[in-house]
Design goal:
The structure is a single chain. By secondary structure, this protein is an alpha+beta fold. The protein has four helices and eight strands. The chain has helices at about 1-10, 20, 30-60, 135-145, and strands at about 65, 75-80, 85-95, 100-105, 110-125, 150-160, 165-170, 180-190. The longest helix is centred in the N-terminal third of the chain and has 31 residues, at about 30-60.
Length: about 200
């Protein structure tokens, strides 16, 4: 024991004591700094994500019409691949394990469209994201996404110009308790125009 003590004295340090070995080790400064940097990056990423969602919403505001089937429906503008339309959700009726949808599509163009494709998506009502914190947003997003469905509906209806054109189709599964939103986008197929003179 004397030789160990002498060795420590020559090296200019003291032997470890019981008190020293029981003290908690503090984190190095660079680890603490890295944790702070990670937290700041996570906050920045969340802010960027919110900004991207907001910008995409502004850019795509007329790509589809979104309806709440429980409320009165005003028309909404929808920009298709060719042409701009007005869409009204006229009626929703339960049908088997889904819903029978009746739309009025106003053709604002000076041409007749022979057939169209509707991209239809539906599910529960979207939460009010502004009232939720980050943790609540994550849980709400998972629950919201789990109720979403999508269907492509090909219609042979003729859309006459300057007219409200009625179209009907069914969606399923769409039980009433999970049917709080209906989104419609339009792709036109064939265009019919008058002959040049």
């Amino acid at each position: 024991m004397l030789s160990i003590t002498v060795c420590f004295m020559l090296l200019g340090c003291s032997p470890p004591t019981e008190k020293d070995t029981n003290q908690p080790q503090s984190l190095p400064v660079d680890v603490v700094s890295a944790k702070n940097d990670i937290k700041q990056l996570e906050e920045l990423l969340a802010a960027i994500t919110r900004r991207i969602v907001r910008l995409e919403s502004e850019i795509n505001q007329y790509k589809n019409a979104t309806f709440d089937p429980t409320r009165e429906h005003a028309f909404q503008r929808v920009d298709a691949n060719v042409g701009t339309f007005l869409v009204v959700l006229e009626n929703v009726q339960p049908y088997l394990d889904g819903q029978k949808i009746t739309l009025l599509i106003g053709n604002l163009n000076y041409v007749i469209f022979n057939g169209l494709t509707l991209n239809v998506s539906w599910g529960s009502r979207e939460p009010d994201w502004s009232k939720l914190n980050d943790e609540e947003r994550t849980k709400a997003a998972e629950a919201y996404i789990s109720t979403q469905h999508e269907k492509e509906v090909k219609l042979t209806d003729i859309l006459r110009p300057a007219t409200w054109n009625k179209v009907q189709f069914n969606i399923a599964p769409a039980k009433a308790e999970q049917f709080g939103e209906l989104r419609i986008s339009i792709t036109t197929n064939q265009v019919q125009m008058g002959n040049a003179r």
